Amino acid sequence: MLIETRAYARAGLFGNPSDGFFGKTIAISVRNFGASVTLYPSPELTIEPQVQDTNVFRSLHHLRDSVGMLGYHGGVPLLKASIKKFAEYCDKEGIRLPNQNFSIRYSTSIPRQVGLSGSSAIIVATFRALMQFYNVEIPQPILPNLILATETDELGIAAGLQDRVIQCYEGCVYMNFDRPIMEQQGHGDYEPLDPHLLPKLYIAYNTDLGKQSGRVHNDVRARWLQGEPLVLDTMNAIADVARQGRDALLRRDNDALNDLVNQNFDLRSRIYAISDRNRSLIELARACGASASFTGSGGSIIGLYRDDAMLNRLFVELRKINARVIKPYVL
Fold first, then answer.
1. d(CA 307, CA 261)
2. Which of 60, 116, 196, 224 has its CA 20 to 30 A from that of 69?
3. Which segments cross the bilayer (predicted)?
């Protein structure tokens, strides 16, 4: 029995990053890129390392670049943490797993550390493989919580639920993480939206090395926990962008959607430090006439474009700063 599962990249469209602050978001899955996991029975439980998990390097500079892009441990810790959290969930729920081992390996085409959620995609694909192998069902609204706990509890990654929700549900989803909802049911309200409602979207991402998103969020979270008015008010405003975005999608108001994308980034920049590299992505895309906001914590942007001529300008101009432009494949 050979099991193969897959999870896709994602892009936050509206409300990002208020998901970690009892906010609201709209996100899309980006099927241009994905992570896959292969699992099959074996005498012992074996995690097969991939090329990016190597401890052999061509040079000191190769090691430097590899660590800068992948961290110190590659993807193997993601698989270990996923397996551990899955076993703990089954124990807690009284699910008795059969005594059968497996070998597991992963591969990914998701650009790393540019805000497209490559790490959580590997974890989602791993959970899907384990669920299939052991014939275990995890309720869909609960699965994102387990994915998030795998990253925060096991690996110390600062993150929110948005990425894990869209990677579990796929398509286009409106998410409401209001505090009373979260406290009452333990997860948000997740409303799938028809992807055919989406306007013409582009994504552009850095092709050089990024940085880990957890570092970006830590300072703002501390200020939010301290009740800093600027942070509280801004996060509420960012969450309301998602609410307005949902309404604009349903009435197919592309002008409003275009403005809301820009508003999302402009609000974010009030409380987050924006690097020159990331700001240049935004400014160059807007100079081409497109709207632009981050898909995640930085390194890639998303926005609306008007026509093929504008899309071509985005291709040409953003290539000048080593950024690649794609049309996201959502369905």
1. 17
2. 224
3. none
Strand, helix or coil for residue 235: helix
What pLDDT score was predicted for residue 73?
A: 61
Backbone angles phi, psi at 102, to 5 degrees: -155, 160
Q: How far apart are CA 195 and CA 199, in angstroms?
A: 9
Relative to beta strand 3-14, strand 172-176 is unpaired
CA distance 119 to 282: 24
- Measured distance CA(145)–CA(35) in Å, rounded: 19
- How far is the C-alpha of 175 from the C-alpha of 19, rounded, in Å? 8
pLDDT at 282: 98
Residue type, 300: S
| Structure confidence by residue, pLDDT tens digits, 146-200 | 999 999 999 988 889 999 999 999 999 999 999 999 999 999 999 999 999 999 9
pLDDT tens-place string over residues 54-112: 778 889 888 877 776 666 667 899 999 999 999 999 999 999 999 999 999 999 999 98
Domain boundaries, the chain: 3-193, 196-326
Which active-site residues does the annotation give?
163
Integer Cα distance of 24 and 241 in angstroms:
8
Topology agreement, domain 3-193 and domain 196-326: no
Alpha helices in the chain (DSSP H): 60-70, 76-92, 118-134, 143-149, 155, 162-169, 179-185, 214-225, 229-250, 254-271, 276-287, 308-319
Candidate CATH numbers 3.30.230.10, 3.30.70.330, 3.30.565.10, 3.40.640.10; the one for domain 3-193: 3.30.230.10
| Of 111, 125, 113, nearest in space to 35 by CA | 125
d(CA 214, CA 229): 23
Q: Which residue has 């050089």 as its token pair? A: 208
